[in-house]
Amino acid sequence: MKATIEQISLLCVVGQVLAFSGCYNCATSLRKTMAEYKVEKWVCSDFVPGSRLVVRDNDGAIRICADDGTECRVTGTVFVHAPAKREAREIGEQVQIAAERNDGVLIVTVKKPPMSQKHRFVSVDLDILLPRQAHVECETSFGRITLTGIEGDVEASTEFGRILCEHTRGALDVQTEFGRVIGREIVSDHLVASSQKGSEDIVCADSCPPEIVADVSTEWGKICFQAPPHYQGALDLDSDLGSVKLRTSADVRGTITRRNVSGRIGSGEGSVRLFTNLGSVTLR
Question: What angle do CA 41, 45, 47 make, to 5 degrees?
Answer without folding.
Answer: 140
